[in-house]
Design brief:
The complex is a heterotrimer of chains A (331), B (291) and C (717). Chain A has 331 residues and is an all-alpha fold. Helix content of chain A is 74%, strand content 0%. The longest helix of chain A is centred in the last third of the chain and has 39 residues. Chain A is globular, with a radius of gyration of 24 Å. In chain B, helix 2 packs across helix 10. The N terminus and C terminus of chain B are likely disordered. About 1% of the residues of chain C have low confidence. In chain C, a hairpin with a 2-residue loop joins strand 9 and strand 10. Chain C contains 25 helices and 23 strands. Chain C has 717 residues and is α/β, with parallel strands linked by helices. At the A-B interface, helix 1, helix 5, helix 6, helix 9 and helix 10 of A face helix 1, helix 3, helix 4, helix 9 and helix 11 of B.
Chain lengths: 331, 291, 717
């Protein structure tokens, strides 16, 4: 089994390398960093522009193979190159990724736990009020684009603040940024302030994840509801609810493992929008800005980050699958 | 099944639910149809065209012949929303058709003809799944800027088909072992003909449901990309560009945001209802056990 | 039991079960009444849809929520219908336990077998402990030990170690043993076994029936055995109840039912099963038509449309199940004419008769040449010849980077031939390689090793065009009539497809489709209906018609009747026999049901683990089998005759089929061979271990080869 997972990991790493390379090549050929210096008045001399572009390895006059070689060489050494503003991509990524990861981890962990619980509950209470409530919630949430959902949450937050009289600088729920500037990070105020900044954006992502998992978990539960082994469990003397939870839920968790990988990719896009709406300086903002700025190395860096995330999620899916299903755990 | 009364009640609820489900699907279908008609008829009905400026009305709330109000530049919100919906609908429908067709063909061929073709297609699918579609389309967006939006649809579809193709492949693998396919093979019917005559028709329900679900996913994907300016490019508008442009105005000039957003949500919801109804209709899950 | 004999253990009265479906309410069980006495074995027989499974699930209240149950089920004097889930859960598994048909899906895949048996013990620990063992709760550790004891009791080797295995690591027979262990864990008073052996091979079936007998001895429980197999019932049950269309139509003690059936349906069932122990071709009397739909049952007797004895009263009024006037015992039957049948002592053949099939001369598009029936075998042309055929599969592991970890020897050097106008039955249990063999033949490609010659052409040297042309003469009928017809095409198109592929003109196609439908006993007007509109038996007829569309010479029949209900089966068998003589066909008939093979085949080849162990004239082989495996196989098949069953000494094979990836050395059967185990001395055994016995003539009989060093003829029927 370990060998299977190891081989799987190697395959995934190869895929990540290939996909990042594809992204680099696409970015290097499609984006035009030279445009940054065009239209300036007075126009800078061509040599100066070339020198500036060469410095960050984005000169379109250099052959693509050479640029790719230099970039790939750096990546192997753990250096993602320089941004178009001559800053190390590593630093920028290092700072921003935790901002995004914080949101995504909260969203995915909270969302998957709550979603699985809600879906299982819905299936057990099939066609009762609570089941209908979950179905409607999932259905509507998954029909709303995350941008719109984030705007709705933000406005609701502002409305709540106003309603409860938090009209000054101190708010109950903050809707911009990740922390009020000037507070000591590790002080009590700093932490609570961070927390009240975190609540709304996390809620957005959690809601989406709950809707997603809740829907699939419910369906997976309903699939096993008519199964023979549930009947056996009841024939043994387990009560219906006991059988549903001990035998039904446990088995219905297996397909969830595969959804984990898909859902994580979905969550990254979700986090991008959420950051944008709530004014967080995370990976999403970085990526959008770097495409607009024709910043090839940054674009490639973000793609690598996302690909690695998908890889980790995919690998965790495989591990979870093997842990949940003894049938794939062949020695 | 504790006591007869609740049993009867839950059965009644089941029947009611099935009815309701079907009715919800009907409601969804009619809503999509009405929105479609509205989107394409509005240029002839509304007082303003989407690219027409009313220099007497900047940022006015819904009133008079500006049913949905106006924007900062004096564009009519109703005309913009309807125009945006046209684009979203056509992108969704066209993209779904493309991606489901691609998924069906790739999945069926890779499942039916094992060997090198299968390996290549599977690796391609894996690779496309790891490539973040959002990022790739964003990177390519400067290229199709100023060109036809059809390229954008092609790109959206190109990143939408992989999971379905895998499902189709899986079903093909099992259908291939089914005896009616084997019978055709042992009669001497060629492989491509078996695929189009026996295999794909036997998963038509999956493909129809998938196409429906894809319409709404693609509309949502368009919104996401256009929100950041990576999708539909001005002067063209879509619901995504409208939502992107006016998300900041949601509190101050709510009509700018909530009309396009509202129409979008209703549209997607309606399409999803149709998809769900179709799923139910194709798989009624009738719980009879023969003894 | 405290109740004694006065109160029956189980008393079912007017039990009805109705399902709400989209098509309307379906009454699957209609006022069913029967009793089970303590320690008694009641067999319930019926075809699919007769309500036999639903009624037994209703006793346990294990039906889906869409079911409405009415009537009364009294167990040890206590009413069960309408009790809460909580109350019932103290009875389920403790007083009444159940064994299901499919032991794979009936066990939870994610828990070990030991854990699942343990759970059955622990869940009742606070209900006064396992019945009969006194009160008090039981510790986890004690439960684990008891689970291991139970596994040992049902015959699982190394129970301590095997208890930690997951269900998918068990073979089908082992899983069913584990299910039985679970069922007897709390010494129940009643065990309901729902088709416990249907999913299993015959030799494993014999093992499981043995285990059930052991379980009964250990617990003293009464058993309700639900099955469609009259043979199993004959050898196992004390009393038999026959169900049809949700109702009990006849009930009697087992001897009476088989010798003096008094309801036409029962008579029909008994007349339609081919008998393993009848040598000369006995005529089968099929029951025409199909069981009724339960959605809108007409007022009268549900068997009316299929009953040759129907009178007007039958359509007006449904007969009640009543004790027969002439017999003073507990023989009851639901037929208006039972007393008449009783008086005349009518048998199956008196009530039913074989139907006429259309003469071939009326079907101009299908007539062929003469039928060479009278020519001796040696002089007839060889149509299909298989020599030393080997098929090996690589055993691979890994999803992406596949690597080979072994070889499955699915078929390992088999040889046989089929001559003009002849039927060869290829028999064996699952995993013996018979399906691989026919797929290899049908593929018409070069085999891994050995040769396949079809109509004089070697598949190894065939060109693409020749291969395509040969497909005309070599056609196939598959097992599952549901899966073998494309549900998306009308049957006219299905029948025309082979003709289209081989360039028959559209006008000829239409004509021949009509004739084909008439040939197999269907109406030409049926051509534009879809497969769903037909019953299983009719679909199998369509499958046969499609195979005949190109007027082939050889037909490969892959278990053509095993998916059909008993009453339908006889009709299809009769049709196949008729077609064979009328069209001069040759059959390669693959089956696991030896009774059917005896009925239809001229010669038979018995396969075990990729090899043919015995081949020869069907009567020779069945009456005087020489190979121990053939003997065991024949011995394992229950006969629908209670008296014979009681007298038979059964050879029960040990263990499971070894893995074809790792077959035993020498003789492949030696690990399970009764002769090897009990009759041979060490020196003789050594030869079995070292030397693989060749397939040769050891008995000196005409047309008979076997592959056993120590073959001796020995009748087992």
């Amino acid at each position: 089994m370990t060998r299977f997972l190891l081989r799987r990991l190697i395959y995934l790493i190869v895929l990540v390398l290939v996909s990042t390379s594809v992204a680099y090549v696409l970015a290097a050929t499609q984006l035009n960093p030279r445009s940054r210096y065009e239209g300036r008045n007075p126009p800078p001399p061509a040599e100066v522009v070339d020198a500036a572009l060469n410095a960050v390895n984005m000169n379109d006059k250099a052959p693509l193979t050479a640029r790719f070689g230099r970039w790939a060489g750096g990546v192997i050494r753990g250096d993602l190159g320089l941004t178009i503003e001559n800053q190390p991509v590593n630093d920028e990524l290092g700072r921003r990724m935790w901002v995004s990861l914080r949101l995504m981890l909260i969203g995915s962990i909270l969302g998957s736990l709550l979603g699985v619980a809600a879906g299982a509950y819905g299936a057990v209470k099939q066609y009762r009020f609570s089941d209908h409530l979950l179905t409607v919630f999932s259905f509507v949430t998954l029909s709303i684009p995350i941008v719109v959902l984030a705007v709705l949450f933000k406005n609701a937050g502002i409305g709540l603040n106003n309603l409860l009289g938090f009209t000054g600088d101190t708010k109950l729920l903050y809707t911009t940024g990740e922390m009020t500037p000037g507070l000591a990070v590790w002080s009590w105020e700093g932490l609570t302030n961070r927390l009240s900044h975190l609540i709304l954006p996390s809620l957005v992502l959690t809601a989406v994840a709950v809707a997603f998992y809740g829907r699939y978990q419910r369906n997976a539960m309903l699939d096993v509801l008519g199964s023979d082994f549930l009947r056996t469990a009841q024939a043994k003397g387990l009560r219906r609810t006991q059988a549903l939870i001990k035998h039904g839920l446990r088995t219905a968790l297996i397909p969830m493992a595969t959804f984990f990988a898909y859902e994580f990719a979905l969550l990254f896009v979700g986090a991008t929008f959420t950051e944008k709406i709530f004014g967080w300086h995370g990976m999403g903002e970085y990526f959008v800005d770097s495409v607009t700025k024709n910043d090839v190395n940054s674009v490639a860096g973000v793609t690598l980050f996302v690909a690695v995330l998908v890889l980790i999620a995919g690998f965790l899916s495989d591990v979870a699958y093997a842990a949940l299903d003894p049938r794939v755990r062949v020695s | 099944m504790t006591e007869p009364e609740t049993e009867a009640a839950s059965r009644g609820r089941l029947v009611l639910r099935r009815l309701l489900r079907q009715r919800l699907a009907t409601v969804g279908f009619i809503t999509v149809l009405l929105l479609f008609i509205a989107a394409y008829l509005s240029p002839f009905v509304g007082a303003w065209q989407y690219n027409e400026l009313d220099i007497n009305a900047f940022l006015t709330a819904p009133a008079g012949n500006h049913w949905f109000g106006t924007t900062q530049n004096g564009f009519d919100m109703f005309a913009l929303t309807m125009r945006g919906m046209q684009k979203s609908l056509i992108i969704g429908l066209l993209g779904a058709l493309l991606s489901t067709t691609l998924a069906a063909v790739v999945g069926a061929f890779s499942g039916y003809f094992a060997g090198a073709l299968n390996t290549i297609l599977l690796t391609l699918i894996d690779l496309l799944l790891v490539l973040p579609s959002f990022l790739i389309i964003a990177i390519l967006s400067p290229t199709f800027r100023g060109k036809t939006w059809l390229i954008f649809v092609l790109l959206l579809a190109a990143f939408q088909w992989m999971i379905t193709a895998r499902i189709v492949r899986g079903m093909t693998l099992s259908l291939k072992e089914r005896e009616f396919v084997q019978a055709a093979r042992f009669m001497g019917v060629p492989g491509w003909r078996i695929i189009f005559r026996h295999i794909l028709p036997n998963m038509s329900s999956l493909l129809i449901i998938d196409a429906t679900v894809n319409v709404s996913s693609l509309i949502l994907a368009e919104v996401g990309l256009s929100f950041f300016g990576f999708g539909v490019q001005p002067p063209d508008v879509s619901l995504g560009t409208l939502i992107g442009n006016y998300a900041g105005a949601a509190l101050t000039y709510p009509w700018e945001f909530y009309f396009p957003a509202g129409f979008l949500v209703v549209l997607v919801l309606a399409i999803n209802l149709v998809g769900d109804g179709l799923r139910d209709a194709f798989d009624p899950n009738a719980g009879i056990q023969a003894g | 039991m405290s109740a004694g004999t006065a109160v029956p253990l189980l008393d079912v009265k007017n039990l009805s079960v109705t399902f709400t479906t989209d098509a309307g309410p379906v009454t699957a069980v209609r006022s069913l009444s029967y009793q089970v006495q303590p320690g008694e074995i009641l067999g319930i027989v019926g075809e699919s849809g007769s309500g036999k499974t639903v009624s037994s699930l209703a006793i346990m209240e294990l039906l889906p929520q869409t079911a409405r149950v009415s009537g009364s089920v009294r167990f040890q004097g206590e009413e069960l219908v309408g009790r809460s889930d909580k109350e019932l859960s103290t009875i389920r598994g403790r007083k009444i336990s159940m064994i299901f048909q499919d032991p794979l899906s009936a066990l939870t895949p994610v828990y070990t077998v030991g854990d699942q048996i343990e759970e059955a013990i622990l869940v009742h620990a606070d209900h006064g402990g396992p019945g009969g063992q006194g009160g008090g709760s039981i510790s986890r550790k004690a439960a684990k030990e008891r689970a291991i004891d139970l596994l040992a009791l049902v015959g699982i080797p190394n129970p301590r170690q095997r208890a930690t295995a997951f269900p998918h690591e068990f073979s089908g027979g082992m899983r069913q043993r584990a299910m039985i262990a679970m069922a007897i864990a709390n010494n129940p008073d009643l065990i309901i076994a729902d088709e416990p052996t249907t999913a299993l091979d015959v030799t494993i079936q014999a093992q499981i029936l043995d285990v059930l007998r052991t379980a009964k001895q250990a617990t003293g429980a009464a058993i309700i055995l639900i099955t469609h197999d009259l043979g199993v019932i004959a050898g196992f049950a004390d009393r038999v109840a026959v169900m049809y269309a949700g109702k009990l139509v006849e009930a009697a003690n087992v001897d009476d039912l088989f010798s003096r059936a008094r309801m036409p349906y029962t008579l029909g069932l008994l007349g339609s099963i081919p008998r393993l122990d009848v040598g000369a071709r006995q005529p089968l009397t099929p029951i025409e038509g199909n069981p009724p739909s339960l959605v809108d049952l007409p007022a009268g007797c549900p068997f009316v449309p299929r009953c040759p004895m129907r009178i007007d009263t039958c359509t007006d009024r449904e007969p009640e199940l009543q004790p027969l006037m002439a017999s003073g015992d507990d023989h009851a039957s639901a037929c208006h004419r039972s007393d008449e049948i009783e008086r005349l002592d009518m048998k199956s053949a008196d009530v039913f008769r074989a139907p006429d099939l259309p003469a071939l001369s009326t079907l101009s598009t299908l007539s062929t040449g003469s039928t060479p029936n009278e020519v001796p075998r040696e002089q007839r042309k060889i149509l299909l010849e298989v020599r030393d055929l080997v098929k090996e599969y690589p055993l691979t592991r890994g999803a992406i980077l596949r690597r080979r970890i072994g070889t499955v020897h699915a078929v390992d050097g088999i040889s046989f031939d089929i001559r003009e106008g002849e039927t060869l039955g290829l028999v064996g249990e699952s995993g013996c390689g018979k399906t691989t063999t026919i797929i290899e033949i049908l593929n018409l490609t070069r085999p891994s090793s050995g040769t396949i010659v079809v109509l004089g052409k070697d598949t190894a040297t065939m060109t693409g065009a020749e291969r395509f042309a040969i497909r005309r003469d070599l056609q196939v009928v598959f097992q599952d009539p549901m899966a073998s017809l494309d549900p998306r095409l009308p049957i006219g198109d299905i029948l025309a497809e082979p003709m289209h592929a081989h360039g028959v003109s559209p006008a000829d196609r239409a004509d021949r489709v009509r004739d084909l439908l008439r040939l197999v006993g269907l109406q030409p007007e049926h051509a534009n209906r879809y497969p769903q509109a037909f019953s299983g038996g009719q679909r199998q007829r369509i499958g046969i018609a499609r195979a005949l569309a190109l007027q082939p010479k050889v037909l490969v029949l892959d278990e053509p009747v095993s998916a059909l209900d008993v009453s339908i089966r006889a009709g299809v068998i009769n049709l196949l026999e008729h077609l064979k003589t009328a069209l001069g066909l040759s059959y390669l008939f693959v089956a696991h049901d030896l009774s059917v093979v005896r009925h239809i085949a001229d010669r038979v080849a018995v396969m075990y683990l990729g090899r043919i162990v015995e081949i020869g004239d069907v009567n020779e082989v069945f009456d005087r089998p020489a190979h121990p495996y053939t003997q065991a196989l024949l011995s394992a098949i229950p006969l629908p005759d209670p008296r014979k069953e009681r007298q038979r000494r059964r050879i029960v094979l040990q263990g499971d089929l070894p893995s074809p990836a790792n077959p035993p050395s020498g003789c492949r059967f030696r690990t399970r061979c009764q002769k090897f185990a009990h009759e041979l001395d060490d020196a003789a055994r050594q030869r079995c271990t070292d030397e693989s016995p060749a397939l040769e003539d050891r008995t000196g009989s005409r047309d008979r080869l076997d592959a056993c060093h120590y073959a001796t003829q020995h009748s087992v029927l």
